[in-house]
Amino acid sequence: MRPIGMRKLGAWVLSAVVMLGAVGCQKKRTARPPTGPYAGQWQAPGQPGQPQWGQPGQPQWGQPGQPQWGQPGQPAQPGQPAQPGQPVMSAVNDPVNNVDIGQLRARAGGVLTELKAALKDGDRNKVQSIPLFADPSTGEVNAFAACDDQGQALMAVSDGLLEVMAFSARGKANDELFQTRKLDQYLKMIADDYKPKKPLPRPANFIDPQQDNDPRKIARQNELMDEQLAFVLGHELAHHYLGHTGCATGTGSRGVNAGDFGRLLTKALPGLNQQAEVASDVSGTNNLLAAGARRNGVKWNEEGALLSLNFFAALDRLTPESIIFAFESSHPPPQLRMPIVQQTANTFRMTGGAPFPIPFTF
Fold first, then answer.
1. CB-based burial of residue 273 (10 Å sphere; 0-12 exposed, 13-18 middle, 19+ buried)?
2. 256 CB-near residues (< 8 Å, 6+ apart)
């Protein structure tokens, strides 16, 4: 675990970085139309008989003629955004309400495809073939960019992080519509009941069924879910195309075993390089907003990013003596990342889409 003293040292470094940027201005947000489900296919590594990311002859994202995941009997292109007027998922099959990990993995793959498409050509060419792996490790909450043992690039997101995002989005959407405190309740339960290497605690009878099935709430939680994914994956993708990992050369990993993730994470970014983390937050936020601007219907903004960062900041306050999730120990303190994300987003809007400059060279 990263000791509290290192957090304070990192705070001084990142606070100085924030002072380098110009202060932007926020614009009033208007209501956003509902979004629909994503299309895509994604399998966790190490599952017997299942297609694997990066295995020769197996389906790949965006390869012509490959089978795609979508509605039953209706193949679709991976990551294709919802068209205006497309109905949202019903309460019965909504992956956020149901915490359907298989569908949430597919959503992550679709979001990553949109992020890659929004990059400038040089950066996109470096990362287009980088696969996204599911980390099924019990109780693990993390996402990272790394190189495999052959020096090929990969990205990974844990099922635990997908679960935390789903409950966060679900609780936040309910709180906004019905003035409840469901997000706070979920946070307290995680702080009180989480045990390392054990399944994440899940609340029973979390939300009143009538509220839980409200179409407005379902639409809103799916927006927040996608924005959380876009921020986290955009950050990790940036580590690759900014050269932090050193293995993004236009090719991607041909496959890893599920048991390798813990070892690969220790090699991902040794020492928690503060400058690299700031640069990835800036680039990842710019990528999130650029991808959002290209979409039909819902336009992504930084609200999901701030939801995730506020979640981990609140968890820090509830568990001041320990860092309970790997996501916290492998990334800078969320309290210091939030102003960077907000400032980057403000600048993007104020300049009509010109990205906030990264205050470092590598």
1. middle
2. 45, 133, 148, 149, 154, 264
| pLDDT tens string 293-334 | 999 988 999 999 999 999 999 999 998 767 677 776 768 889
72 vs 164: CA distance, rounded Å? 27
The string of pLDDT tens digits covering residues 162-210 is: 999 999 999 999 999 999 999 999 999 999 999 999 999 999 888 999 9
Domain residue limits, the chain: 4-15+34-47+75-81+95-350
Q: Could you give phi then psi for residue 326, rounded to 5 degrees?
A: -60, -30
Q: What angle, rounded to 10 degrees, do the helices at 334-350 and 303-318 form?
A: 160
Q: Does the global pTM surpass 0.85?
A: no
Q: In what order do the strands lie in the sheet with 132-135?
A: 132-135, 153-158, 143-147
Q: For residue 34, what pLDDT is reported? A: 39
Element (H, E) at 134: strand 132-135
SS3 253: coil
Alpha-carbon gap, residue 284 to 277, rounded angstroms: 10
- Going by the DSSP 8-state scheme, the letter that residue 164 receives in this structure is H
Work out the angle between the directed axes of helices 303-318 and 215-241 (0-180°, nearest 10): 90
Q: What is the CA radius of gyration of the chain?
A: 19
Tokens encoding 71: 């509605």
